[in-house]
């Protein structure tokens, strides 16, 4: 591929979906990604925004949050601080391992399993639902860098470019966008 940087990434640890608007999503044996829509059978499926807070502002916004990914390394970090968290409990659809999701530039394409491709649109903006799930969790997924800038650690969001099945143990291949890279912003 000309002018595209591709490399092996990590692996899918777990997949989750929920047809209801609840915070956590039950783990599944597989999920099916649908191009331009999101996760089949998930409450956030749609071309336009499905998150309640965003629908209240403007229901015609494009859905840049079709798929939520969290790195399992965050779960490990939170567990070492005394939180009881595991795959799907923070609302993610795909739990990964071996990829620094937060360091990916906007527009990165994640090739999941045999066919599916998700384009990274930005950072998940942590909300108070985290504290309702476990007190103090929202603060635990926020930090500051050496310059005092806010770091959001609650995962990334993406849109489905190519649909397909995604299962635990599927490989993840990373395709970086053309330079100059744009850092992730909250979406």
From TrEMBL:
List the molecular function annotations (GO) for this entry. Answer: catalytic activity; molybdenum ion binding; pyridoxal phosphate binding
Pfam families, alphabetized:
MOSC (PF03473)
List each copy of the MOSC domain by range.
Answer: 25-175
Q: Which domain of life is it from?
A: Bacteria
Recorded hits in InterPro entries, A to Z, give: MoCF_Sase_C (IPR005302), MOSC_domain (IPR052716), Pyrv_Knase-like_insert_dom_sf (IPR011037)
State the name under which the record lists this protein.
MOSC domain-containing protein
Upper lineage is:
Bacteria, Bacillati, Chloroflexota, Ktedonobacteria, Ktedonobacterales
